[in-house]
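stuck on whats below:

***
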Amino acid sequence: MTLLALEQVGRRHRHGERERAVLRDVSLTLDAGELVAIWGPRRSGRSTLLRVAAGIEPPDTGSVRFAGRALPGGGALGSGIGYCQSAPRGAEARGVLDELLVAQLARGVPQPRARTRAFTTLERVGAEGCAERSLHELDGAELVRVMLARALVLEPSLLVIDEPVKGVDLLERDAILSLLRSLADEGIAVLTSAAEATGLAGSDRALSLAEGELRGSFAPELAPVLPLRRRVSA
């Protein structure tokens, strides 16, 4: 069943009088239980695409539908969507457990239930040992796991995570990617991004994005030889 659908999405970023097309007529569907990775170089539009898909940024053209309903965008996540990023600004000194509680209490979850769910979710992502620590004490892999827990504690059906292995030690990257695969196997749709081919492991589909244009699906193991830029004829 199609859970997320982007149709001919365009997005432009403005800097003063300058304007740049970041996404050009991007169309993408994602099913429940599917792990899709977007691969592209810096400034390819990967992060913008994920923010539009999560409802954080609105498209300038085209449409985004989640569970059959239009996502308006503009800063508020759609219900049922979990978006992962590095620790929110100003929250670095906050405790890990508090971070998961705040996310739930803001949605009206009673505190006793929120605490139980927080510990269960931390265990689910392999971060149970981080519960009593502060965010600034975590290494790269631990922080990714905690931010995943922060999103998962709200029980989303779609998880959007931008560059999950960025800043993660090489020895920990496979475990993070395996965790994302296991979440998809549980039925959660996962949309992720990668700047390197190694970040595509475990995905059902890998798509390349270059100059704002989304290219066709390819097998992740073929990523190193996939051209990212349009060939210029002589």
User: Anything to note?
Assistant: Strands lie at 2-15, 18-31, 35-39, 61-66, 69-70, 81-84, 158-161, 189-194, 205-210, 213-218. The chain has two domains: 1-80+157-219, 86-155. The longest strand covers residues 2-15.
